[in-house]
Amino acid sequence: MGNPLFDGLFGRHRGAESVFLHLSDGSMITHGRFLERTARFAHALTLLRAVPGDRVALQVEKCPDALAIYAACAQAGLVFLPLNTAYTADEVGYFVENSGAKVFVCEGARLETLGPVAERAGAVLTDLGSLAAMAEAQPAEFETVVRDGEHLAAFLYTSGTTGRSKGAMLSQRNLLSNAEVLVEAWRFTERDVLLHALPIFHTHGLFVATNITLMAGGSMIFLPKFDLEEVIRLLPDATAMMGVPTFYTRLLGDARFTRDLTADMRLFVSGSAPLLAETHVAFEGRTGHRILERYGMTETNMNTSNPYEGPRKAGTVGRPLPGVELKITDPGTGAQLPAGKIGQIEVRGPNVFQGYWQMPEKTREELREDGFFITGDLGRVDADGYVEIVGRNKDLIISGGYNIYPKEIEGVLDEAEGVLESAVIGVPHPDFGETVVAAIVPEGESAPDLDALANGLEERLARFKHPRRMVLVEALPRNSMGKVQKNVLRDRYAALFSA
Ligand code: MLC
Ligand code: AMP
Fold first, then answer.
1. Which of 398, 405, 464 most suits a substitution to test ligand 2, by most atoms within 8 Å of the C-beta?
2. Which of 139, 188, 411, 476 is most buried by its number of CB atoms within 10 A?
3. How many CB atoms lie within 10 A of CB 115?
4. Whole-model pTM?
5. Is pLDDT at 163 greater than 70 in this prediction?
6. Which atom of ligand 1 lies closest to the CA of 226?
């Protein structure tokens, strides 16, 4: 009995006087203080009548209290549902409603806009300031709610190639098992200081970075976002950093990023998007460090990792982590393919999620009865067992580590005045890795006003999803079956943003 996730994250360092968070203003929060804050929030959420199993949605800027609310959810047996701060009210409305969230925590400035959203969804809306004030008046200890590993700990929404976003249900065991494996694999200890510049509403910044640090009893330099100046200023105080490839290409673009600056670092981890082999090589040339690349997903947490000790091969994501099985299969038949052959990547293990919330059919399409999850990524395994990701079997763009689903953008563009149809593709981009381009076929003779079209996206889609370029085309290229040939468009516009 107990609460595996909460005990796993806090067990070893309960009440410790060591620092958990170093903040930008020079202040700090110890592990002990953080645990007290967590307990107070657990009381506050309970006062709002959230009971074990209820979902708590949160859309607030990155701050220590957002982390404490995550931890409070674990302690109170609630299901944590973090939301990208860039999402519009339209987008948020869907998540809050679909998840059936009991409580929705937002920024004070958005209370008015989000009021109707929460009301429609039947959620109790509170702003972070009010919740924090309520928490402040509560006791600093909370009786941890008993859970087992199969109980749900978090919902993370991930878009689909068709239809609306799906809530990936992650259990306590999913999160805990991955954190345990990663602490070991990457040798995290209480001496580590992780430079944390990622957002905390996704797997990378929340479950990978934060869970590992909490479990190891280490500390984090907790930056509100990736800010090149701040990162360069603070790197000498850190021992480890986790980032998306854009972090590393931006650092390499700055002459102050040198071997000296990184002399006390022991680990740079990259993931969420492909790291170009040339970035890996340039990074080693500049700093002497070989970036450790790993591969994960919202639905699975981390699947593979290059080794801490042993060769980190550029252009690969390493071997399956302990406890994770990985196989390459034929996308048509599902049959396993021999080593070296390219096919779809499937994974199984304690890290693999419980399915999509209230979407049994979608779950069946991607999660096999034998427990293997079809990732939608294409890859092969080399003779040493290292996995190389060569592409995607899903229509997905990854821009600066954010996933963008063309279908969602096409849906909005196609409804706009003057547009007959559209096709959205990802093209190479020097900063974001990939970026969004929309090919638009006008309806009738006169071309639609592209500025008006762009303005029309404002209320519907988060900014990072907006096409960086819209091009007018007479018709979309199609194959003999009538399917749009996105590869033709990708080739045509491949050099639009070349440096
Ligand atoms: C911001 N913008 C982006 C963007 N981020 N546009 C495209 N792609 C992105 N990733 C837009 C903003 O809307 C704004 O647009 C403009 O860029 C500047 O905003 P900004 O806030 O100043 O951007 P910046 O700070 O430079 O952000 C870039 C970034 C950030 C790369 C630092 O996006 C980031 O931290 N990405 C990490 C994402 C992540 O954590 N992914 C993990 C997913 S988990 P405008 O038009 O208003 O000027 C996962 C599983 C796994 O995938 O394996 O880890
Ligand atoms: P998300 O749904 O946001 O969790 O994104 C998961 C997707 O990110 C995976 O399916 C991959 O396509 C991609 N991804 C994550 N890590 C890597 C990596 N190291 N290299 C290439 N792609 C990656």
1. 398
2. 188
3. 13
4. 0.97
5. no
6. 32
